[in-house]
Write a structure and sequence with these properties.
Elements lengths: L1 H57 L2 H5 L2 H7 L8 H14 L3 E6 L4 E4 L19 H9 L3 E6 L6 E11 L2 E11 L1 H8 L5 E4 L5 E4 L14 H9 L19 E4 L2 E9 L6 E7 L4 H48 L4 H48 L5 H32 L7 E4 H19 L2 E6 L6 E4 L1 H17 L5 E11 L3 E10 L6 H4 L11 H7 L5 H11 L4 E6 L3 E12 L3 H15 L3 H4 L2 E5 L3 H12 L4 E5 L2 H10 L4 E5 L7 H11 L10 E5 L6 H7 L4 E4 L4 H11 L4 H12 L6 H7 L4 H27 L3 H17 L3 H15 L3 H31 L3
Parallel strand pairs: 12-14, 18-19, 18-20, 20-21, 21-22
Antiparallel strand pairs: 1-2, 1-5, 3-4, 4-5, 6-7, 6-10, 8-9, 9-10, 11-13, 13-17, 14-15, 15-17, 16-17
Helix pairs in contact: 1-8, 8-9, 9-10, 10-15, 11-12, 12-15, 19-20, 21-27, 25-26, 25-28, 26-27, 27-28
Length: 863
């Protein structure tokens, strides 16, 4: 009872700690996000003021400072408001896009002014504005002055830019340019929270809070207020102070707490003051805390189950030893002690079986909520998340997958011990299975810079009867350990036949590595449950220690055995055997024979086949040339797409192997150029095979959308390269066109796949498709606006959102085109983005029309 109390306490404590940490980190993340958004908006406003408003008002300065008509007017050599000077300043006003321009003499009297007001009938000519600070400061300093004020006559707020008019170094007067703050008011009106501009005295002259206009943001003395009113900077406004200090770090408005951000501008003494809410929505935080604490509690619970199982096994072993010892000491009661030992052994066996069944049940129960967590988190990853939320969701996905892998190991182990694991007996293509495994582990080999080879003895039958899932599980388990414990050198798989008769064959699979090796002592127990090489290895590499134990029992269930040969420091060779039934297919044998004869004969067709390899990497060119030249093909190379087009124009080629990422002209752009020329020239109607080092979902769709016929991933494996070349080398131009159309056709909507993911629930399908069609238009419009503005970060963001949403509803072609735009945005290829966007709009329209008619009708009216 005490033990259960202790385990319960540990589980609750771990959940409490995890909840507190998650709460704190999530709250901090939300606060940082709110601040970052507010700071970004403030920065955008400041940029508009600095780059647009100031640039506009300063633009005509050079033209006005020394213009001969203005100089003549100020020297009293011409009449005020004469036609020539009016035409000049009106023209300057129109091309600069400002509100008002007027000329003042040294006394401050306006001699000429652009007309304003209704029907352009008003003018400031004759008015004296010597009291304006911008006039006196410009006269005194003889340099340009920028000032914020409310027009005395026009009653409109604006930015006044006064420049000295000089002749031969002598100041004659002042030219004043004014722009209104209408555009700034519109920008501030779009802000979701209070935002305002303050001058050096703390007076609010622009804001989205109308009642705050011309109010003092900070306490102001009567002397200061009198001086400002005397200058008539803000007309007859009272300049009353606000009932609170707007410059405080925190401010309560309408029951909400706001924080402030102050940003300086290029206007003298002017700064932007932005408010943003400090409160954080609680429900998302609570949801995240609940999920995290539940996961932590489940993990600790599972650890206690494992520890308890080990403890029970040790107790059983101890009792068995004590029984044997008592039997030796009490010879006179041999019969009694023998019966007792049988009883104890049976009791231990029952307990062990009960433990195994308990583990099997618990593993099933744990997998159910884990699959829910993984599935819901997957939907969350496909939604429109910001960068911070995406990072957090990815951490949850990685942690959940790791936990599920451990649970699966325990489930397999408990199934085997409980005698409930059943093997399948279906056709297994050994070579195809190993090819899948090779493709799966190639990335791991590249990641650790290891050589990875697969060697299959020719005598291995093409098809056998067995369980491909369990064969793959054992091989991947042994390969996983080999890659985990190997830092340099190579890992390889060798498969050969040990015994064979008419109906069966015993096949041995060997996994060789050049890793750290296993000492002799550990070799004796490494296939036992919950065992690793030593505690240091466990801490460094992790793991449950169940993988090899499960592999051993699976091999035995297949009628084979498992073992290893190893020396510390020189590597290891793990092996296992499986007894499999033969399965003969005459047609398959004939095809295989034909294929071998076909590939071993270097015919005139190969000698006349000229293949162009386009790749900027010299080593990749040599690899392709080395593999294909041995078969008699004529290989030519090009370093980039531009050179490839030149070579295609000069000679006849049967095929192009095209790298996707190249300088000057990449593979996608080159392919589109070839397909365009093929419209009028049959020489360009030839197969194009993409070669790419990318290994992400959707990569094949991107290549086909660009006009390529097929796809092969790097590193180039000889068998794969030969297979794809023979697949396409006999395609005539007309056949290639037909095949190309069939290959290139990407489905608009994969209805069965979506329905299967939704567990055949038509109602959910209809709801998801309706939601997609209702919301995709907004994201499409945002993407189009970002393209027009050439805002590549936003283009990438919106394209990624469309790609994720399309993947969720199985809109395959839309997903592929969106991914092309996302990739092009990273390299700022605007033309490629524009062309792809036209296709994207068409695909979205077609998808919406399809899913709003036949698919939704079929879903809502099942037959």
């Amino acid at each position: 009872m005490e033990k259960y109390k202790f385990s319960t306490l540990c589980i609750l404590l771990s959940m409490l700690v995890t909840g507190l940490v998650t709460w704190q980190s999530t709250m901090t993340a939300h606060r940082n996000n709110l601040f970052a958004q507010a700071e970004k908006r403030a920065l955008n406003l400041v940029n508009v003021i600095n780059k647009e408003l100031l640039a506009t008002v300063q633009m005509p300065s050079d033209r006005l400072m020394s213009h001969h008509l203005i100089v003549s007017l100020l020297k009293e050599q011409s009449q005020p408001d004469n036609d020539a000077i009016l035409a000049e300043i009106i023209f300057t006003k129109e091309i600069a896009g400002v509100a008002l321009i007027y000329i003042m003499n040294m006394d401050g009297t306006v001699l000429a002014c652009t007309p304003y007001g209704p029907r352009k009938t008003k003018s400031l000519t004759g008015e004296n504005y010597a009291f304006r600070p911008y006039f006196s400061k410009t006269i005194q300093t003889e340099i340009a002055t920028t000032y914020i004020a409310k027009g005395v006559t026009t009653k409109k707020r604006g930015i006044y830019h006064a420049v000295p008019v000089k002749k031969d170094g002598v100041i004659l007067g002042v030219a004043v340019i004014k722009i209104n703050l209408d555009s700034l008011d519109k920008l501030l009106a779009e802000e979701p929270y209070p935002s305002q501009l303050l001058n050096a005295d703390g007076i609010i002259f622009a804001t989205n809070q109308v009642e705050w206009l011309f109010k003092a943001a900070v306490p102001m003395g009567e002397v200061q207020r009198h001086e400002i009113r005397t200058s008539r900077q803000f007309g007859q406004e009272t300049l009353a102070p606000l009932p609170f200090n707007l410059l405080g770090r925190e401010l309560e408005l309408s029951g909400k707490i706001f924080s402030t951000i102050s940003s300086a501008t290029s206007l003298p003494g002017v700064k932007l003051l932005s408010l943003y809410p400090k409160q954080i929505p609680v429900w998302p935080v609570i949801t995240r805390v609940v999920f995290t604490t539940i996961a932590a509690g489940l993990l600790v619970w599972m650890l206690f189950v494992i520890i308890n199982k080990n403890h029970l096994e040790k107790v059983a072993n101890k009792e068995r030893k004590n029984t044997l010892k008592k039997l030796e000491e009490l010879n006179e009661s041999l019969e009694q002690e023998t019966l007792k030992s049988y009883y104890m052994a049976e009791k231990a066996e029952v307990a062990n079986k009960a433990k195994s069944e308990f583990l099997a049940i618990m593993s099933h129960e744990l997998r159910t909520p884990m699959n829910g967590i993984i599935g819901m988190n997957g939907l969350l990853l496909d939604s429109n998340l910001n960068h911070k939320q995406l990072k957090l969701a990815e951490v949850v996905a990685v942690s959940a997958q790791s936990l599920l892998a451990i649970i699966n190991d325990i489930l397999d182990f408990s199934k085997i011990e409980a005698g409930k694991l059943e093997l399948e007996a279906i056709n297994v293509d050994i070579r195809a299975l190993l090819n899948e495994i090779r493709e799966l582990m190639t990335f791991k080999a590249k990641e650790k810079d290891l050589e990875f080879n697969v060697v299959v003895e020719p005598a291995i039958p093409d098809v056998v009867i067995g369980d491909p899932t369990r064969l793959r599980q054992i091989i991947l388990n042994l390969l996983g350990n080999a890659f985990k414990f190997t830092d340099n050198g190579e890992v390889s798989i060798i498969v050969h036949t040990v015994e064979e008769d008419d109906g069966h064959c015993l096949i041995q699979f060997e996994v060789h590595d050049s890793g750290i090796g296993v000492n002799e002592e550990m070799q004796q127990k490494i296939f036992s449950s919950f065992t690793q090489a030593d505690s240091v290895t466990t801490r460094k590499f992790g793991g449950t220690g169940l993988g090899l134990s499960i592999s051993k029992q699976l091999a035995e269930l297949m009628g084979g055995e498992i073992g290893l040969k190893s020396l510390p420091g020189t590597g290891s060779m793990f092996w296992f055997t499986a007894s499999l039934c033969k399965q003969y297919h005459a047609q398959k044998t004939n095809n295989t024979t034909t294929k071998k004869v076909h590939r071993n004969a270097t015919t005139q067709l190969e000698q006349d086949t000229h293949i162009l390899v386009v790749d900027d990497n010299n080593i990749n060119q040599m690899v392709a040339e080395g593999i294909l030249s041995k078969l008699g093909f004529q290989i030519h190379t090009a370093e980039n797409g531009k050179i490839a087009l030149e070579k295609l124009a000069m000679g006849r080629y049967s095929m192009v192997l095209m790298d996707c990422q190249m300088p000057i002209m990449d593979g996608f752009e080159t392919t589109r150029a070839i397909r365009k020329m093929a419209i009028t020239d049959n020489r360009y109607k030839l197969p194009i095979i993409a070669m790419t080092a990318n290994a992400v979902q959707g990569d094949r769709e991107i290549c086909l959308a660009a006009g390529m016929n097929d796809y092969i991933s790097k590193p180039l494996l000889p068998e794969d390269l030969v297979n794809i070349v023979y697949k396409w080398k006999q395609s005539s131009p007309m056949k290639m066109d037909e095949t190309d159309s069939a290959e290139k056709k990407i489905p608009l909507f994969d209805h069965p796949a979506l329905l299967q993911r939704l567990m055949n629930d038509d109602k959910i399908l209809v709801s998801i498709l309706n939601s997609f069609n209702d919301n995709i238009g907004d994201v499409e419009r945002k993407l189009e606006q970002s393209i027009l503005a050439r805002n590549f970060p936003d283009i990438q963001l919106h394209a990624h959102s469309i790609k994720g949403a399309a993947a969720t509803v199985s809109a395959i072609s839309t997903q592929g085109i969106a991914e092309i735009i996302e990739i092009a945005a990273k390299t700022e290829e605007l033309e490629k983005i524009k062309k792809s966007f036209v296709i994207l709009k068409s695909e979205i329209t077609s998808f919406s029309q399809l899913t709003k008619t036949s698919v939704l009708t079929a879903a809502t009216n099942p037959s």
